[in-house]
Each structure stands twice: as C-alpha cells, then as structure tokens.
Write a structure and sequence with these properties.
The protein is built from 15 helices and 40 strands. With 833 residues, it is α+β, with helices and mostly antiparallel strands. It starts with 15 loop residues before the first strand and ends with a helix.
Amino acid sequence: MEQDSLLSQELITQTARLGEGIMQLNPDGEQWTSVTKIESSLCYLLTIRVLRARNIHQADVLSQTDCYVSLWLPTASTDKFQTKTIKNCKDPVWNETFYFRIQSQVKNVLELALCDKDVITQDDHLFTVYFDIAKLSLGKQVFMHFKCDSQRQEELEVGFALDNMSGPPETIITNGLLVSRKICCLEVQVVEKKKKKKTLEKEFSFKVQGSYEGTQDIKLGSELVFSSSSPARFHYARYKQPTLDITLPGKKRPPSFPSRVCDTGSPNVELHSLPSGKNLILAEDKRFDLYAKTEDCPDHLDVRLGFDLCVQEQDFLRKRQKYVAPALKKVLQLEQDLLDHETPVVAIMTTGGGMRSLTALYGSLQGLKKLNILDCAMYLTGLSGTTWTMSNLYRDADWSQKDLNKQISEARKHMTKCKINSLSLEYLKYYQKQLCQRKKEGHKTSFIDLWGLVLESFLHDGKDNYRLSDQQRAIDRGQNPLPIYTAINVKNNYSTLDFKEWVEFTPYEVGLQKYGAFVRVEDFGSEFFMGRLMRKVPESRICFLEGMWSSLFSWNVLYVWNSSHSSEDFWHKWTQDKIDNIEEEPQLPLKPHELRTRLFTPPGPLGSALRSILTDRFCIAQEHNFLKGFQMHNDYLENKHFRRWRDTVLDTFPNQLTQSEEFLSLVDTGFFINTSIMPLLKPERKVDVILHLNYSAGSQTQALDQTCKYCSEQGILFPRVDLSEEDRKNLKECYLFDGAETPGAPVLLFFPLINDTFQKYKAPGQKRSESEMEDGKVDIYGRCSPYSTYSVQYTEKEFDRLVQLGEYNILNNKDLIMQALHTAVAQKRQNKE
C-alpha cells in the first residue's frame, strides 16, 4: 500500500480578505467595535477510507466483537456516519470510503469511534480516536496506523486524502477564535389550487436536518389556507448541504433517526442543488403546488465578535472620566488637574456571602462615600449576595451622588421583615403563574428561577419589573461606576475544577471573554444560530438574574467535598476522562496550532455511575446559548485571548466546547472562586487599583489565595500577596499590595470582613463609652453568629451593627487607601514618561 512521505505541511488557506476591522451595526443601528474579519476562504475535499482494525479485544462474553466504526466530523456534517458491521471478528476489514467538505480556516477534528454491535443492549463503545485534519498535507494521500493499545497491539488503519474543490471559496466571519459560516434561508410554500366547501384537513411536514427550525408542519383545510405572505422558513449552514425532507398528506412521516431505507413516497430535495433567489416548483398536484426558494443571509452578526470593550462602555469611560479626575484631585489634594493618562482606573470588587454580603456592602460603600472615594471608582463588580445590593442601588439613576441613608433604610426594612410570608399559598400561586409565563415566553425554567422569585419577595414589595438594561439610565452620563455582575458557565458531568468559563454581565451586554463573544443585554436569553438572532425572547426580569448569580442550589458532591477539604484531587481519577496521546505511523510533524492524536477510553458502568453521582448538580440555570453554531478557528489555540482564559480539560477538544451546546449552564461564581475580580483583569479595562471587599464565610484569605494561584497559572498579572502566618491568624482590617514585584499588575487593597478595633472604637479615633461597648460586639463568624451565609433575616440591631462595621473598616484605613491612589498616579505618570 502506497504511503505518504513523513513530511507534512500546514494546510494552505489562501484567504483573500474582503474586509478587516469591520464595524458591525447592532439592531439599534449603533456601531460595535470589533476586530472581526470577513474573509473568503477555500474549502477542501476530505476523503476518509476506513480500512481495517487489528487485534480488537473481545467485548462479548460468548463471541468475538461485532465491530463497526463511527465517523463524526461536526464541522462538516450534522450526521454521524458508520461502516458496516463485521460480525464475530477481532481483525475486521471494512475498506469503506467517506467524503467530507471541510473549511480550511476551521479546526476540523475527526472522531473515529470503534464500537461493538449489540442486538439487545446498547452498543458497546470500545474507544475513540481524535485526529486533527490540519496535520494532513494538501494534495497528498496518507495511510495512518493508530496504535490504540500497545500491550494488546490493537490498531486502527485509516487512509486520508485532502484535495482542492471546484467552485468559489466560502465567505466566513471570524475574530481569529470563533468562525461564523455562510447561512442560507429556505422558504417553502404550499398553495392550494381548489378550495371546496367541505375539504379534509391536509398536513404537510417539512424537515431540514441541522437547521435552526428543524421540522415545520403546514395544515391546509376549509379554514386554514397557507398564504404566500407567511412561508415556512428554515435557516441552515450552507456547508452542511442538507436535504429538505417532505412528507405529503396521507404519507408516513420519515423516522426521526437516520435510516438507510426510508420509503415514504414523498419527494426529498438536496438544497445545494437549488439556484439561489429563484422560486421553484418542487411538486405539482391537482390539489396544490409546492414552491421553494433559497437565498443567502446577509453577512451581519447579532453577536459581537471582538475582544475590545463595546462602544457603549468606551463612551461611558469618557464620561466617567469627568467625575473621576476631579474627585481624585480633591481626595489626593493635588495642585494640578490630572491628565487623562495620569488618571488611574479604580475598581471596587466584592465577594459573595448571602445577606451578610448584601448588608456589609452597604456599609463599605457608605464609608467610601464619606471619603469621596466612590466618585473615584470606574467599576463596581459583584457576585452572589452583593449583586442584590448592586441591583437595588442602580434603580436610582444618581445613587452614588446622594447620601446612602435612604437606600440603607429601605434595605433594613426588607432584611428585618418576616420571610415566612414568602412561602404562603398566595405567593406559591404567584410563583407558579410567573414560571408558566416565563416558559411561555421561551425561557428554559428551573428551580433557580423559583429561587429568583423567592428573592424578589424577600427584597421587594411585590412584583419587580426591573431589568438589567434599565440600569443604562444610571450610567448614561457617567454619574455612577459601571456595574459588572459575574457568573461561570459549567458543563454537565464535569466539576468546576475541570470546566468553568467566566461570564460577565453589564447593563450593555453579556459575554464570555474567553471566546470574545458578546450579545446585547436585551437579547440575552434569546435564540441564536451561527451568530444570528433567530428568535427574540423577552429580556428576563432582574430577579431571575439575581437567582442565577446567587444559585446556591447548584452544588454537587464534589463541591461539598471541596468545601470541607483542601482539593478535589482525591476524586479526580473517578471524574476525569481517560485521554491518552497515542502513537501513529507515519509520525506527522506537529505544528503549533495542531493537536496531538489522542485516544479516549470510556469508563465502565461503575465508573460512569460514580462520576454521575459526584458531578451532577442539584439544579442549574440554563439560558439559550448565543454561541450555538459557531466553530473554532484552526489557530484558536494560538490566540492570545483564548490562551489567557484557557483553563479547562476540554479546551483542546473543539467539538465539545461551548459552541456545540444548546444552552449555557450558569452558576454562582463562588462554586469556583468567591470573587468577581476576573472582568477587572481583562487587559482592555486597564484597571490600576482594586479595592477587594471580602465578605466570605470562614477563611477570609481563601478567595484571595485562590485568585493568586489561578492568575499565576494563567499568566495573568496580579500582585504578589505575602501574608505572614501571624497575619493570617490575626488579620488586620486592611492590607496594601502595591504590585512592585509584578510590574503591570494593579495595586490591591484587601479588606477582610473582621471585627478588630471596631470593638473599642465607634469611629476612627473615637473610643466607645462603657454603655456603647455592646454595640462593638459583632460576632460575624462564631458558631452562634446571626450572620450565617444561609440567614435570611436580621434584627434591626444586627443589621445596623454590620453596616456600621463595614463603614468603620473603610474609614479607619483612609491612609492606606490614599497611599494606594498616590502609588497608582505615580505609576501612571512613570509609565507615560
């Protein structure tokens, strides 16, 4: 058998750029800032010849394995293909050929699964080989021997060939990480010729496999006539070259699953054979005519692909600068105005902690307000309980310009009221009605949505129609810091240690910074396909987002274990996939953007059951995935933005990343690290000073230590945190880490939530009298503390004391805050020079 030479070359892309640095328009006609490119890129013909396997181990008890090979290349086809089954043979020979049309700019990873056919039970999955098509050379044929088990000498032999294709190249849109491919729209119309007074109802069924719509039915009868103004529409990716399956009235509907034989007596049409823009007759009958027309969709995306800040946030920064620069001059008592390049970006970062964090944040902000530091802040980030405080504050368009006593009084009213009424029959009926309405609107509901409604009753007087996009009014003049809310996207059957992706929410947009993909906040929860908005779903009320941001019900066994032990390492052998790099002949040279050939061996029944028990979450908030349909760029692993946030076990498995999922699975960031700092470490935000307000239960330094470790592993600039054992045992109210040992890192002020000098001082420099000593006894973390993370009600005295403690700890460390700001200004000036 003739083999290819050992030399390999990178896939020839030969792209002709049609546009670069494209400025896209969002649905409101405003410009997105984007680094997206519209390119014309070649497609290739991939030929795969499955030859044979050798020495396959016996999977059945009484006979040899009944082998077949399944081929899965999702970047080229929605269908899985498979060879014929060779019965009772350990050395099966298939010699079958398959063809795929692949896009050269996409990361194409072929999955070859060897399976054992079983008649009664589910087929046994023996192993899967992952092969990166980018390793092939254009115009050459190669026969690969995949060494699947060296001890048993199992191997799979497959031939590959990559050739040019005739026809024009494909237009793609990419940010160098995600790729959106050409979308077409098919319109199908049924026109009834004769309409009698009494006619039986006739039903047509149309199906386009892999399209956004899937299947649509049309009914014709005495009262229902399908008009030309409302044809059935299907949106599909052109590269899939799908078929329109038609079931005429009185005929049997085709089976849902692919079948070699499917005789329904109805026409099927290959869509790539239809000329674009022409209305064609597919079927003629004495009762009706069937028309179809296909057209290319515009090269416009409703998802913003890019890594820069959106136009709205950039505009906000310019407006906020007019507040920040004078405030810093006043606070630091500077003689001259600060120039733009001398003005540091100051951010307030909070951690979660239920009602404790909600309450303490009011006190911290009150202290910052009294020091005039609040006007110096550009950003305010939160997760879990602090998002409840933030969403309340931003209802007032000028909250940071006012005294916070009114806001605090309103929070006290709801924190001290009896919560048992929230579980009354009246409220339960209200919850059911709201969940039904939410489902009817198109959202996927879960127990997390019920939790959001309960929070609404805890923190408000009745139904709250407020939405995240309404907060744009509170930042339209730059009058308040920009709020950023955080969550993480997780995946079923994986712990958060193995898979998590940072998600950020602002009043402008929601996005995954790892992929450089963002949508307008009004469109979050709507249905997208290949970056296009397919179905608009009403924006969620903010109570549902609050429920998701603080989804304490999304725990699993591994999280409980991790909370009481130092790590999940003990369970990793039960919850991680068994993936091994395997040998192949010939050994093709590995380029930087190419993936090693790997072998996946599925776990046994016991391992699968144990993994499910350990990793399944009680409940997850799910939203329609706006990355659905995108594909990973061939060079995505070399993209500097992706490398920054590349931290999951699936990052080198492009077929299994988020763009392949129907829904985003969003949970509280605290299920990984109790911090909202990650959006502030995005280089484009250029944050210089971070006020780290910690409200965690238990260890006050754990979240900070975890952040330091994570940033070190990811190569993210972060100041070195050096706390002595004495400090860790007896924490002070504030620590300053100036980042001198890590140039380019932000200055960090760390405020643990502790009760230290507050016990003796009611205000900085003002000692308590004997009668006031009781007010200084704030038991935050004791066994009998009223401030447990799971407490939902405080007395007025408990609420007031926690607010006062939060305020005091800020005011008592004014000097350290001023030192941090002076350091940041000096660094800005030095960097400019």
